[in-house]
């Protein structure tokens, strides 16, 4: 059974304080790993897809990386507007995505 | 493109009442999904439709039914609402189950009294 574990559950950062969010997964044949951002009261918004170990994707202050067992979402010099819940999900074969429970990020000015 | 749309945005029901949550997508996606999201529980899959004409149970299907009306529309029905079904419901769609990106609707907030 595919599983996704995200850590930490919550993270509080000062503005400008870089950090990383972790997504550990066990899956029988990874086809894709997805990162989403979710703001309060809204649906998850797609950020990145990673397909193979060693792959990296960047968007503004965010960079996602992938190994064979985990993915990291690095946040460089975060701003208060980066505050959100970040969700990780994996796809294996023709089955629905399996989501982690998310990391709730708060960036304090 | 509106993407994935959901109606209503918010609903209050009394225990035992029924209602249907509507979802539509205009991206010509084959697969559609219904999730519920509760504090501390993450997104949990209720039902999905891999393609028009098929539906399958997810992790938490009890108390719900679905209808894939056509390729665009996928509805979720609560026949007899219970307080345990108080939640935020999200619809999502993707081209096919595989590597393609999945897109979410804005959600329906449901309160069952």
Care to describe what's here?
The complex is a heterodimer of chains A (109) and B (113). In chain A, 0% of the residues lie in helices and 57% in strands. In chain A, the strands form 2 sheets. In chain A, strands 2, 4, 5, 9, 10 and 11 form a 6-stranded mixed sheet that branches. In chain A, strands 1-3-8-7-6 form a 5-stranded antiparallel sheet, with no helix packed on it. Chain A has 109 residues and is an all-beta fold. The mean pLDDT of chain A is 95. With 113 residues, chain B is mainly beta. Chain B contains no helices and 11 strands. In chain B, strands 2, 4, 5, 6, 9, 10 and 11 form a 7-stranded mixed sheet that branches. Chain B has a 4-stranded antiparallel sheet with strand order 1-3-8-7, with no helix packed on it. Chains A and B meet through strand 4, strand 5 and strand 9 of A and strand 5 and strand 10 of B.
Structure described in brief:
The complex is a heterodimer of chains A (109) and B (113). Chain A is mainly β.
Helix/strand layout:
The complex is a heterodimer of chains A (109) and B (113).
Chain A: E1 3-7, E2 10-14, E3 19-26, E4 32-38, E5 45-50, E6 56-59, E7 62-66, E8 70-75, E9 84-91, E10 98-99, E11 103-108
Chain B: E1 4-7, E2 10-13, E3 19-25, E4 31-38, E5 42-49, E6 56-57, E7 64-68, E8 74-78, E9 87-94, E10 103-104, E11 108-112
Parallel strand pairs in B: 2-11
Antiparallel strand pairs in B: 1-3, 3-8, 4-5, 4-9, 5-6, 7-8, 9-10, 9-11
Report the uncertain regions of chain A. Answer: none
Mean pLDDT of chain B, rounded to whole units?
94
What sort of overall outline of chain A do the alpha carbons produce when their principal axes are compared?
globular
Number of continuous helical runs of chain A: 0
* Helix-and-strand structural type of chain A: mainly beta
The tally of strands of chain A reads: 11
End-to-end separation of chain A: 41 Å
Q: The biggest beta sheet of chain B, please?
A: 7 strands, mixed
Strand element count of chain B:
11
- The share of residues in extended strands of chain B comes to over 45%
The helix count of chain B comes to: 0
Estimate what percentage of residues of chain A fall within beta strands: over 45%
Give me the secondary-structure category of chain B. Answer: mainly beta
Order of helices and strands of chain A: EEEEEEEEEEE
Fraction of helical residues of chain B: under 10%
Largest interface: A-B, 24 and 23 residues
Q: C-alpha Rg of chain A, in Å?
A: 13 Å
Q: Whole-number radius of gyration of chain B?
A: 13 Å
Compute the average pLDDT of chain A: 95
Detail the poorly predicted runs of chain B: none
């Amino acid at each position: 059974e595919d599983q996704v574990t995200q850590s930490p559950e919550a993270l509080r950062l000062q503005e400008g304080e870089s950090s990383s969010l972790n997504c550990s997964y066990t899956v029988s044949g990874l086809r894709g790993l997805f990162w989403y951002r979710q703001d309060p009261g809204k649906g998850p918004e797609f950020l990145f897809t990673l397909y193979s170990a060693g792959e990296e994707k960047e968007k503004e202050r965010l960079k996602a990386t992938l190994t064979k067992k985990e993915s990291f979402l690095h946040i460089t010099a975060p701003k208060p507007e980066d505050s959100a819940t970040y969700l990780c999900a994996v796809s294996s074969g023709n089955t629905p995505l399996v989501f982690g429970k998310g990391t709730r990020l708060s960036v304090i000015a | 493109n509106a993407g994935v749309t959901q109606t209503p945005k918010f609903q209050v029901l009394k225990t035992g009442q029924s209602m249907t949550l509507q979802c539509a997508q205009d991206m010509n996606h084959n697969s559609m999904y219904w999730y519920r999201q509760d504090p501390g529980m993450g997104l949990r899959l209720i039902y999905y439709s891999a393609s028009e004409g098929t539906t399958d149970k997810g992790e938490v299907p009890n108390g719900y039914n679905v209808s894939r009306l056509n390729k665009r529309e996928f509805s979720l029905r609560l026949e007899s609402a219970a307080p345990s079904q108080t939640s935020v419901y999200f619809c999502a769609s993707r081209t096919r189950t595989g590597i393609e990106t999945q897109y979410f609707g804005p959600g329906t907030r449901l309160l069952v009294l």
